[in-house]
Design goal:
Layout (H helix, E strand, L loop, with lengths): L2 H7 L15 H24 L16 H31 L15 H33 L9 H26 L6 H7 L4 H4 L2
């Protein structure tokens, strides 16, 4: 980001090139991932488990099929809400990124291409998660509200495919931090010629 723009916004950047000590985007990413994965897995469990009576009594877990679908729905709804914050912080932190040049990731991509793909992928995944939440809502409250299996098989297939896309997308994000050192405090200090061991104690 342009230094004049940073000054005009009144941002005081720390050693990680952010106005706060810990990058927020990775925190929200893991919350999004956890909520989405749990949501899909519980919907799969509810679809596969077809008996409408308590299970796992020997573990003290009297779960029934509708309970699996409740967990799936509320986790997916949470993922849809959190993902807006994930993408917003992601773009803000990308704007403040100053990656290494003339360096390629393990996938053969430069930092700028990796940032571009990760940013576009984030917007795409936001759209997919919101669309899946609307789809899931229609199944829960309209299309299949009286059915014992609350979700369609096509919905579960799209959820599994989305998990694969999340894996690829997450790998791009990990490369930005690990291989290009974006917003990694020690990497930033090393680029400036400062010994992190002297400052980070």
């Amino acid at each position: 980001m342009n230094s004049q723009l940073i000054d005009s916004l009144g941002l005081r950047l720390g050693a990680n090139a952010l106005p706060y000590e810990i990058p927020m985007h990775p925190q929200f990413v893991h919350l999004t991932l956890g909520l989405f994965i749990i949501g899909i897995l519980f919907d799969i469990a509810g679809a596969i488990f077809s008996r409408e009576r308590p299970i796992f009594k020997f573990l003290g877990l009297p779960a029934i099929r509708s309970g699996f679908f409740d967990v799936g729905w509320y986790n997916l709804l949470g993922a849809a809400v959190v993902t807006f914050f994930t993408v917003a912080f992601g773009f803000f932190e990308l704007l403040l990124a100053n990656p290494q040049v003339n360096y390629k990731s393990d996938w053969g991509l430069s930092a700028s291409w990796t940032m571009l793909l990760h940013g576009l992928g984030g917007v795409l995944l936001l759209g997919v998660i919101v669309a899946m939440t609307v789809w899931r809502c229609l199944q829960r409250y309209h299309w299949r509200k009286d059915a014992s299996r609350q979700v369609q098989w096509s919905y579960l297939l799209v959820g599994i495919l989305t998990l694969g896309i999340l894996y690829v997308h997450g790998t791009l994000g990990a490369q930005l931090g690990e291989e290009f050192g974006i917003h990694v405090t020690a990497a930033k200090l090393l680029q400036e010629g400062t010994n992190p061991n002297l400052l980070l104690k």
